[in-house]
Amino acid sequence: MKKKDIQNIFSKKQILDNEDFLVVYLKNDQEKSRYAFVASKKNFKKSVDRNRAKRLLREAVRLRLNLLDDLKYDMIFIAKKGILNKKVYDILSQIDVVIGKLKNND
User: How would you label 82-100 residue by residue, b for 16+ Cβ within 10 Å and e otherwise?
Assistant: First the structure.
C-alpha cells in the first residue's frame, strides 16, 4: 500500500478492536485484500520489540491469507503492548474473530 492509501483508510476508518491488536479497515475495489502492519514507538520502545510485534502479526495473517484475500479489504494491523507475550497461534484465534466480523459486514 502507498502512503495515500493508508491516509485514506485512516480518514474513512472503521475499527475492530482485539486483545492484542487493532484492525483499521476499508473496503477496496482490488482483486484481493491489502495489508499494512504498525507497531508504534510509543508502545514498543525497543526496535527489537516493534519488529517482533510486526513479525507476529505478519505470520498470523500469512497463515490466514486464503480467507482474508477473498474479503477485499485494505487493512492496517496496529499492535498493542500485550502482543509480545503471545505466540502466533494465540493471535490466529483473534484473526479468526476479525474474519468473522468482516464477513458479517458484507
Answer: ebbebeeeebeebbeebee
Length of the chain: 106
Q: Which of 28-32, 33-37, 58-62 is least confident?
A: 28-32
32 and 74 Cβ atoms separated by less than 8 Å: no
What average pLDDT does the chain have? 91
Could you tell me if 34 and 5 are in contact, meaning their C-beta atoms sit under 8 angstroms apart? yes
Q: What is the pLDDT of residue 17?
A: 92
In this prediction the pTM is: 0.92
Average pLDDT over residues 64-74: 89
Residue that the C-alpha cell 483473534 belongs to: 94
